[in-house]
Every structure is written in structure tokens, then in C-alpha cells.
Amino acid sequence: MTELEKKIRAKIPGPDTGIEIRHSICDICTPGAHCGLDVYVKDGEILKVEGTKGFPGSNGKLCTKGASNRQYVYRENRLKYPMRRTGPRGSGQFERITWEEAYTEIAARLNAIKAEYGPESVAWYTGYSKWYRPWLHRMAHSFGSLNYGTESSSCHCATEMAWKTVVGRECRPDLANAKVYIGWGCNTMVSSYTKAQGLRAFRKRGGKVIIIDPRVTPTSEKLADIHLRLRSGTDGALALGMASLIISNHWYDAEYVKKYVHGFAEFAAYVKEFTPERTSALTGVPTEQLRAATELYARNCPASIYTPAATITHHTNGYNNMRAILSLQVLLGQIDRVGGQIPSHTSYVYADCGFDTMEDHFVYDVKPQNCKPKIGAERFPVWNALIPEFQAMDMARQIREGTPYPLKALMAFGMNNRMFPQPGEMLEAFEKLELVVATDLVETDVCRHADYVLPVCSSLERSELKGYGGGLLTCTTPAIPPLYESKCDPEVLCDLARYLDLDDELMKSGYEATMRYMISNLSVTLEELREAPLPVKVKELRPYKPGTYLEKGFETPSGKLELSSELIRSIVEETGRTDLDPLPTYCSSFDGADPKQYPLTLIVGSRLTNAIHSRLHEVPWVRSLRPVPTADISAGDAQRLGLKEGDTVALSTAYGSITVQVRPTHTVADGQVFMYHGYREADGNSLVGRDHLDPYSGFPGFRQIRCAVRRVTESMTESWTG
User: Fold this and answer.
1) Which candidate, 679, 674, 680, 681, places its Cα nearest to that of 709?
2) What's 83-156+352-462+484-502's CATH class?
């Protein structure tokens, strides 16, 4: 072997090897949590990926998901070209067509449906990834419809609703200036490397950490001063119990409450019933632990609270549980204060960067007026008042029933039916639609049930505008050309706008022009961003000044922080809904199944370090880390049920049954079963009833379902062959 051959085999870049390092980002996870990628490319092919040193947050580190990007891009089931269905839905029978044929036919059918049934009869939905959402949102508006929806219908939006109800907008924890940190449902050691590093630094400088989680986790074991191990779904009861202690011991900020808080007396009267003893009985948290954690938190402010996207709100009382948690920061005067919670201002695609872009103008300048209400508006009026998207958990019902008006077409961008309860029912509802168009990176169940399938590319194959906290902005260049005939999602939308002949010259001008519009108010250009090796700090950075809302008033009906919601009160008066309450009341989130028949509690949706939903379960590297669908139970329950690790069990609820392996562990409390989601062959969401939904947010109760476990076979060695 020659020296050159050795260098090529070692993937050493240089003019002699023909290997280049091109900068990109990993877009597998959520907005604001991207990691920089060094992509080693030779002859247009990715050889390997590494982390980019100096990239904000990640600084050269990659998780298991990011390290698998090469396999993620070159999967065998990549969609290669546009296709038209030729057989029955779900048969997988398609024929190859050109992009022009696809655009022409889709546009003709959409315009015909619009002419006959109205623009609202078309639903525009997106799953992962989230980067192109402004384009899809504008597309729905330009088409004449408010029916734009996302997977955030079961992800972050309920948390956003709670913040808007109490404060008027979302807030972020000011960890840099806090003395106490409450991680509620927080497992940053698994879910977010950058947040975990921040929390490590916080502890190192003397900060106190309280972790509230039903499980023992790497975060609770390595970072927590106190771990409150509550029963799943009882977060609201715990928060109200803490509020009761804070008020009864006069630990609250009386001056702050008097000046800035609405509904204190009503709230204080309600929480009296959450004595330490009752709270302990409801949550399983010992009274002495409850008192110790509350005193540590309340008497050592400033304090910050962090909650992940949806672990708390994946209950049928999740929205109120979240409101109850936020009430603690209100009582202690920690909203809009240094070291507490700082109001966020979204700059671009969910990221608070500290500067404005033209995103809101891009989306809402073409918002149609006098439209029919969004999907789910009648069923979930609080959601409808707070979230500018349709509630997708009501979409299958409206397709089936045709009320309050018929849905006839679905534009499904990256849609994953496994994000819904009873995911099979969503696919069955497709049979009643006249048109389903699916775009995706790879073949999925939704693609197999579509009329047209359009191939889109990965983040390594496109140019992408991204913003990050601290005034940072970047625009990537493709590390490799788009594979096969794939296009990036906004390009598809801009092309389709032309074929639809929409009255929207900006969309019809194309992807590049719309990106330029997005930053037209800034002093930096796309060219400058693309030339920079790392994200650029823009001159327009204007950090938020804490106390601004305290001075000018909050964006709530009362202008104050609301422990009792005037918005909900008005909705109750208007609709007569007796199941809605202005206070963050607590009730059980269990389904109605018989506890004797189903004595255990199923928690669906626990996150694996190697997966995000089902997006990576067919990537060999990451699938090999947890190849077989597995449920975690306590060692005590395993002993009582006569189970050992590797046994195959039937995991059953009133709604269905799946077969999985069982893993006894000390991290799970007695009576609870944790099922990791996303496995096609054993989908935990199929065990959740379609109507097991929060009446405020519409969120599914994924994390508190009565279940039973029964052994099917003895332990055996199983392997996943890919």
C-alpha cells in the first residue's frame, strides 16, 4: 500500500487525497440544539463526520445520533424520485414520475378541491424536521387556510400554552445567575449535552439542584442534591403541595404578589387542601422530602425552573400540571427577574437569538381573514385561543366525521403517524381523503398510504438558515449535492406555489429569495454567513433587559401574572364548558380502565439516547444499541410477576397489546412500566386511546395508562438484522 493509499484509507484531507472537510450541521434533533459537523467528502461522497470545534454549544462533540449521520443519509430506504400511487393505499405500489408531472397533477387536484370544498378542506401538516416550518405555514395562509399543523400538537405546544396563560409568553431559566435549579422531568445527561454541561458548571460554582422525576436517571444520580421521585402524572399535585407550603410559611414574595399577580387569593384558598400529608399520599413523595425541597427552593432565591418539551404535559391534566409548576415561580417573584425566568422572544424557528428577523412578517402578512376555524378549535377552545396551529390530535376524527366541515386533502411533510394515539387509525382515516401528498427523506407508513410521494433531502444536502442564542446566525452550504432527485422542503413549496398560481409573489420567487427576505432587516448577507466557518454574531443583537414586563405589564388579559386565568374564565362563560377551570386544578390523569385488570401504570414515550421518535430505528449503528423493543419495570415487580431480564411479555391496556422484552431495573419504581416509543413492530402509542386527551390542550395522555404485563416466553437471545 502506497503512502497516498494509506492517507486515503485514513480519510486524511488534502489536495493529494482529494478529501475535503465541509462544514454543516446535524439537524436530527430539535431547533436550537444543533451540533456543528465536519463532513469529510471525496468525489461527492461522505466518508465520515466529526464534530466542529468551536461550534456554539457542542464545541466538537457529537451524540450517538449525530455520529450516525453518514448512515442516516445513505439509508437503503431513501426516497429517490417523485412517485404516483398505482395500487390500493398501503400497498406500496407506485410508479416513478417527473417533478413536473408531480407538481402539475398535485396542483390541479388541490385547486379542484379548493374550488369545491373551500381552502380549509386542505390540511398542511409537518413533523420533523422543524427547520422549514415558516414556509409551510405561509403556504397554508397563501392557499387561504388556517389549517397549518405540526407534531407540536403532542410535543411542546401545551407547555407554551401554560406559559402564555400565566405570563403571556414563554420564559427561559437564567441559570447563570440562579442559586437553585429545579429540573422538573429533566434528564439533561441523556437528552441535551449542552444543557448538561451548563448544569455541571452550575453545581461546580455552588448551585443547588432539585430533580423531580419518577425515574432514577443519570441526571438525578450525578447532579441532584435532592431527587423527588413522584408518581407519574402527579406533577400538579406536587406543585400545588409546594405552593401550599410556600404560602402557609409566608415564604412567598408578598410585595411582588400584591403588585404583579392576579388571582392570588383564589389560588391560595384552593391550595390549602394540598397539605403535606395529602400531597405525599397523591405523589408518593415523603413529607419530609417535600418540606426539605420546598424550603431549599423557596428560601434560597433566585431560583430557576426548567421543564423539557412534553414530559409533564403528556397527561390528560398536563396543561394544568404545568400551570401549577409555573405558579411556584410566580409566588416567589422569580418571573422577569435575574436568576429566575427571563421572557423569551422567538427570533427564528423557535430559537430566541436576541434579535428580530422577518419570520413573523413572512408567515402572518398573508394570513387569510374570515376563515373557518382551525381543526380542533371547537373541541379545544383554550388551545385555539393560544396556539396558531390546528390541533392535529383532532384531525383523524374530523376526517372520519366531516364535522364541523369536511377535510378532503392532506399535505403531509415529514408526517409520522406514530406521533398519534392509535397510529393505525390515522392511516385508516386517509381512506376518506381525496388526496394525500407525503414528502420525506425515507419510505414511511405515511408514504405508503399517500397518493404522491416526494423525496426531500437531509441537512447535509441543502443550504439552511439557522439562529442561536447570543445573537448568532449561520447559513450552511450543502456538503454534498442532493442525492438522487431529492429537493429541500422549501424548494418544493416554492415550486408548488407557482404551479398553484397563488397570489404570493414572494413564495413564487423561490427558496433563495425567501431566505434573503427572512434576514432582510439585518446587516449581514447570506454570502457572508456562508463564507464564515462558524455562526456569526449579528450587529442587531439586543439582549432582553430583565424587569421590562414588570414595568410595562404582561401580555395577559389582566396585564399581570395570572394564577387564575381570565382567558379561561371568558371561554367558560362563552361556551358553558364545565370541564375547564380558571385555576390550575389537579385531578388524576388515568384512563377509565379497571385497575384490577390493569394494575400497573404505563408510561409511553421515554427517550433513548440513540433515537428520536422512530427516525433512527432503521439506522444500523444506533439501532444496535437497543435492537429489541423493551419495557423497563422495577426489580420488585419483576420478582412478583416471575420475570427476568430478556423475557418476552405481552404489554396490554384497554386499547391493545404489544409484545416486548422486559428489563428489570432499579431506576423504575414499583407499579410503573416505561415503554420506549418509535418501534414499528411494537408501538407503545397503539396502547393509548384516541380520546385520552387533555380537554385544554388536546394533548394525549401518553404517560399515565393503566396496563398489565404477562410473560409470553422465557428469556431468549434476539438480534436485529437491519
Assistant:
1) 674
2) alpha beta
